[in-house]
Design a protein that fits this description.
alpha/beta, Jelly Rolls, 13-stranded mixed sheet, 3-stranded antiparallel sheet, 23 strands
Length: about 575
């Protein structure tokens, strides 16, 4: 339908004083944007259009194949500027044809039913869909709703209550991070997951379970939610700090058999790649390794204030996950022993090289050497440690890196163990330590290097490593090469067995000489030490001779003064 003042060069419904029903289901009035929606029609369909002046004040209705669709534009002709109205059709292609029926034949829709049909509710027309925002605009809005803390969702919740459109967009962000602090909250969440038709469970990416005081219910989370949270990537298990008596109460409150079945329960977290443990206590170190190894694709383990009962470890009970590559330890007195989560995997798979699988069994002497270092108690433990495990396909090597940091999060010491498979007698393949690199901020003074570096020589003397190329100790402390040579000479005497085997290298890193920074490392060799020592000895002798000469001259002057002889 179009008025007499309409522009016929445009499609009907998209211009002023026109009402159109398009084949794509869009019904519009003087606007190229859709006002309402109706069913789509195709070639061969019969479309009817009419106005009701007496009943609805000039409202326009449409029919499709004899079915009344509904009143689309109410009081259309009364609010129009044109005086006359004409049936109008817009065709998109020159070959398109239509056949019009102005009453010369019976209409497909019985006009006698118009009074009844116009008074009842119809399925059509439908209102237009709300306009959708681009992903960039949505990310900006979401960034403004939660600018600082993902757990603070007050503004995001308020925005989700505006309409269904925003509720649907914000639902994944509302449930992306969940923190449970009681069993009641766990029950509510479990019920919500059951009633949300998997939408809520699919949105959960991070889950935190915080047990208060002497509560014991974290295992129930694994029982009820682990199998349903398929996209869960980060799992945090936290508890309030407890003393030894508190942990004994926890042990008594734990149902019988749960402790032994925990690995089986946690194996249901099939997508978790990061596991965080805070204020947890285990019956043994083996129990910790069994729980961690239960996660099929775990890559990162973060531990803060983790303890376990001191008891001898049975190597057969130690486990390690296949994909574990990073361990971050904070405020743990036994952080070095956490490295056994990596080396416990060795010797459990065939000998074929595969960077993602476990490596061959560790050689006996290498095992004694490495475990002797890992099991040594620190007299001054560091606040934070980070352990990294990586494999290199180029040279078939495994890297075990330990970074120790002080209270200011500054790297104080870094250990890098490099292991490679080597063939020993009878062509048996074993994993052997081939290189050890130690970087530290302290100087080479034996009193400042810590307890483990002097222990290297003792362990090497007890179990020599045939495939160890060298042990490199690098100091980042600023010092002149002369002072460094004196200190390295003392350190060599403390590491006499490594030095005698020719496996000790001492280097300076990032030193400055005469105001110019030197790139790379500068090795302090025995020749340099001997040269510096000899030069210092010569300078000391010259200094002593000068002192003796000055003393003899002063003695001669004093004697002349006593005898009254004039001074020349």
């Amino acid at each position: 339908m179009a008025g007499s003042r309409s522009d016929l060069t445009h499609a009907v419904g998209a211009i002023h004083d026109s009402w159109g029903y398009n084949s794509d289901g869009i019904a519009s009035h003087g606007n190229p944007m859709p006002d309402q929606y109706a069913p789509k029609f195709h070639a061969g369909d019969i479309i009817g259009c009419g106005t009701m002046y007496d009943l609805c004040g000039g409202s326009i209705f449409y029919t499709l194949n004899g079915s009344f669709l509904g009143i689309f534009f109410k009081d259309a002709t009364e609010r129009c500027e044109s005086d006359e109205f004409f049936p109008s059709v817009s065709l998109c292609h020159p070959l398109d044809t239509v056949r019009a029926n102005f009453g010369q034949q019976p209409f497909r829709y019985p006009i006698a039913r118009i009074i009844r049909d116009s008074s009842r509710e119809t399925q059509w027309p439908r209102p237009p869909k709300p306009p959708s925002f681009s992903s960039e605009i949505i990310y900006i809005i979401l960034g403004g709703l939660a600018p600082n803390n993902d757990m603070d969702k007050t503004h995001m919740v308020s925005c989700s209550l505006v309409c269904r459109y925003w509720s649907r967009i914000l639902s994944p962000y509302l449930f992306r991070t969940i923190k449970l602090q009681s069993k009641d909250e766990m029950d509510v969440m479990s019920a919500q997951v059951d009633n949300s038709n998997r939408q809520m469970s699919a949105a959960i990416i991070s889950l935190t379970v915080h047990e208060r005081a002497h509560d014991v219910w974290a295992y129930k989370v694994a029982m009820s939610l682990a199998n349903r949270c398929h996209n869960l990537k980060t799992l945090t298990q936290e508890r309030d700090p407890l003393d030894r008596l508190g942990w004994e109460i926890i042990r008594q409150c734990t149902p019988p058999g749960i402790s032994r079945s925990l690995p089986a329960l946690y194996s249901a977290y099939r997508a978790v790649t990061t596991f965080v443990l805070i204020n947890q206590h285990f019956s043994s170190f083996a129990a910790l390794t069994q729980l961690v190894s239960a996660f099929p694709v775990l890559k990162t383990l973060k531990c803060e204030r983790i303890t376990w009962d001191k008891r001898p470890d049975n190597p057969r009970l130690l486990r390690a996950p296949r994909c574990l590559s990073t361990i971050q330890v904070e405020c743990c007195d036994t952080d070095w022993r956490m490295a056994r989560l990596f080396i416990a995997r060795w010797g459990r798979l065939p000998l074929d090289w595969d960077p993602s699988s476990k490596s061959p069994e560790l050689h006996r002497n290498d095992s004694l050497f490495v475990h002797g270092l890992l099991n040594t108690e620190d007299t001054q433990p560091f606040d934070t440690s980070e352990l990294l495990f990586a494999s290199s396909t180029d040279n078939h090597a495994w890297h075990l890196k330990m970074t120790l940091m002080d209270r200011s999060r500054t790297e104080a010491m870094k250990w890098d163990f490099i292991f490679c498979p080597r063939a020993i007698q009878d062509h048996i393949i074993k994993t052997c330590l081939t290189e050890l690199r130690i970087c530290m901020l302290n100087s080479f003074d034996p009193d400042e290097v810590g307890p483990r570096i002097p222990l290297l020589d003792k362990l090497f003397s007890e179990a020599p490593l045939a495939f160890l190329a060298n042990v490199t100790i690098v100091s980042s402390e600023y010092m002149s090469p002369e002072i460094a040579a004196v200190k390295t000479s003392k350190l060599r005497r403390h590491l006499s067995h490594l030095q005698a085997a020719g496996k000790l290298r001492l280097c300076l890193s990032g030193q400055t000489t005469a105001g110019h920074e030197e790139q790379g490392e500068q090795e302090i060799t025995e020749e340099v030490e001997q040269f510096v020592t000899e030069r210092m000895r010569i300078e000391e002798n010259e200094r002593a001779e000068m002192i003796c000469m000055e003393e003899s001259q002063w003695a001669e002057r004093i004697s002349r003064w006593q005898w009254g002889e004039p001074e020349l």
